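Morning run. Coffee first, then this:
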Amino acid sequence: MVNFDEKLKENLNIPNLLSVIRILLIFPEVYYFINDKYIISAILLSISGITDMFDGYIARKYNKITKLGSMIDPVADKLTLIAIVFCIGSKFKIIMPLAIILFIKELIMLIAGVILLNKHKTPSPSKWYGKLATIVFYFSIIIIVALKAIWNIENVILTLTLMLITMILMLFALIKYFFVFIDILKNDEEIEKTPQV
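And here it is:
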């Protein structure tokens, strides 16, 4: 039987804390955005993006990989993406269809992760195409918010272009991850731990 204190100590580490911080940051990010405090929201989003880059690196470098971390890290990513995309969609109605597509994509990936966990298989760590899509997402959102906050510019064409590029990369990542998902399902081995990203 696994000692509760040992499991608690294993999961109380910096990478997992950073993932939890990303989830907690969603609430003020959304609050400040919908109240037109774009600079504060962009700063919080930037902090969220930085923690996203470092939690996986720290987990691998210092051997702090946990099953809990491999679950909450992608959840933090997806919740942040969904919240911010819908915030942007609420301000720029023209991109709401794209927001819905991105939401469906993230929901599919979340369901796939749950399916793998139920089969005692750990979801795949993020690949380069997933990270690229996430980086472009943060870049696009920060550009859109900065234009509005600093110069009071609402360029619909630029906004739509950035969101379309983001959507294309997200859908590309979804297709690639689908094949990874199938490979993991076919694999008879049960993976206990996987790098957190």
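The chain has seven helices and no strands. Good start to the day.
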